[in-house]
Amino acid sequence: MEFTQEKKKELEKQIVELAISALESGVITEDILGEVSQFVLSKIDRIKNTKELDYFLAELSKRWNIFKPLFQEQKGIEQEEKDEQTADKAEELVKLGNIDGAIQIMKGEV
């Protein structure tokens, strides 16, 4: 899946909101905020797909725990998309009369 400009802007917004919230609540310092900014700015433009996005968010959340919910949210979105694709494949097989194939798809056997 492609990492679009729209998705990039939304991600940047979420990162900024989490960082500001952490700064305001005293979880991070201004120095750490600077480190976060440098890290994000040096990497975000290189992200081209969800695999690279996963790697970026994993690295970001390992360095600063405040971003762990963002990483977990992304993993949940990806799982939902994968589940939807599986259901669509199974539905197509059902429409074609291949019930056994649909069951195998839903069980993850194919």
Question: Which structural traits does this protein have?
Answer:
mainly alpha
Overview of the molecule:
The protein has about 110 residues and is mostly helical. The chain has one domain (about 5-105). Helix content is about 75%, strand content about 0%. It is built from five helices and no strands. The longest helix is centred in the C-terminal third of the chain and has 28 residues, at about 70-95. The protein is elongated and about 60 Å long. The two termini are about 20 Å apart.
Q: What's the short story on this structure?
A:
The protein has helices at 5-24, 30-43, 50-63, 68-95, 99-107. By secondary structure, the chain is an all-alpha fold. Helix 1 runs antiparallel to helix 2 (30-43), helix 3 (50-63) packs antiparallel against helix 4 and helix 4 (68-95) runs antiparallel to helix 5.
Gross morphology is elongated
Total helices: the number is 5
Major sheet, described briefly?
none
How many runs of DSSP E, i.e. beta strands?
0
Order of helices and strands: HHHHH
Terminus-to-terminus distance: 21 Å
Helix fraction?
over 70%
Q: How many separate domains?
A: 1
Q: Which segments are poorly predicted (pLDDT under 50) over 5 or more consecutive residues?
A: none
The pLDDT mean sits at 89
Label the structural class: mainly alpha
Radius of gyration: 19 Å
Q: What proportion strand?
A: under 5%
Which secondary structure elements does this structure contain, and how are they paired or packed?
Layout: H1 5-24, H2 30-43, H3 50-63, H4 68-95, H5 99-107
Helix pairs in contact: 1-2, 3-4, 4-5
